[in-house]
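dude i think i finally got it to work??
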Amino acid sequence: MVYTGVLIIALIIMSGLIAFLGDRVGRKVGKKRLSLFGLRPRHTSVIITVVTGILIASLSVTILLGVSANVRTALFNLQGVLSDLAALTLQVQQRDALLQERDEQLQDMEEEIKTTEAELERIRLDRSTLEKELEALTREYLQASRELELVSAELDTVSTELEAAREEIVSLEEDRDFLTRIFDEQTEELESLLVQRRELEGKVEQLEEKTEHMELAYQVMEEEYEERFQELGRLYEALGERYQEYAEGDIIYLRGDEIHWSLIEGGMEDIVILEKMEHFIQEANDIAQARGVELHDPATGRSIVFYASEFLAVARELSQREGRFIMRLVAENNATPGEHLRARFQLISDYIVFAEGETILAKELPTSLPPYELEKELEGIFNELRVTAVENGLIPDAHGYLGAIDFVVFYELLDELKAREGPLEVAVVAAENIWRSDNLNENIGFRVREAGTDN
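look at this
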């Protein structure tokens, strides 16, 4: 640094000296009005000034080149210096990248060290826990050893008790022999009691004969009861008919009464469906007129009034759906003689509710029931049968009836139940396929068998 400063100062002094000498020469040339190369003195002065500047620059460069190798390198090998500088810059960048990578590796290693230290701390904690568990297991082992000693002592006690029990068994065998002798004595007493039993059985036979006489008297009373019950049924039917006549008076159809019904198949051609529905309307009209309903339209001869849109809607539904249907015509007003009747259509899907041979209902009856209790049980079975049929889809009439059980069938079943002993099972079976539109009581049979059997 000092060398460079001295060199610069020397160059400044030398440049000033050359400039001074050039100025002195220029002045002398100007005063003497000398001419160089035949030029005018003024131009000669300029040339001298220029030459002086050139000398100052040349001398400065020469001195710098002679003194400093760095100047020579910078002046004559600048491109190589720049190339070396670029290579060095690249090396610096590579080393910086390598240093960055090593820094990252160092950070990863620090993190691994931290993880390892945490794992080591966890292992230390686990070790502490395991040491505590080992201490606990050691205590348990010592406790188990003490318990084993106690069990061994108890085993000795049990062995002693076992020996005592064996001695007691010998004593019990002696007691058994004693009891055997007593049993033989009791057997003799039992034989004596058997003789007394046979005597009592004779008395029981006499009582059974008396019971048979009483049963015969009971059967006579039962027959009288059945006759009275049948008479009461006939009176009840007559009373019902009179009550119906009294309640309805001159009303031919009550609102909701079924005028007529018929089965019809769906999915047929429109013309066929319309023909069948017209025939159905004509049949319903004849029935209504026969019961006294007034003629409404002389042109068509019909007494029943209905909406044409409803008629066409039912026909359209029948043409679009497959299967068997129940078509009903139901009164919409109370009709009296001399009045026309307004009605509406009902279309209900018909299907098999109970297949042939299917058990509709089965109920077990307890043993030894008196006749009036049997009648109550049968009435309960028939009521439950009606509920089961409606729940499964059977359609009752407008008054909610599914048909009445014939009295003959009722009493035949009652007689069969009376004639059999033991707990019985009464089953109601479909005699044939029962559709929704069928009358339940006309398509069923009854099966009576002992409870708990399959025959």
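Helices lie at 2-32, 41-67, 69-76, 78-248, 270-290, 308-320, 371-391, 407-419.
im so relieved honestly
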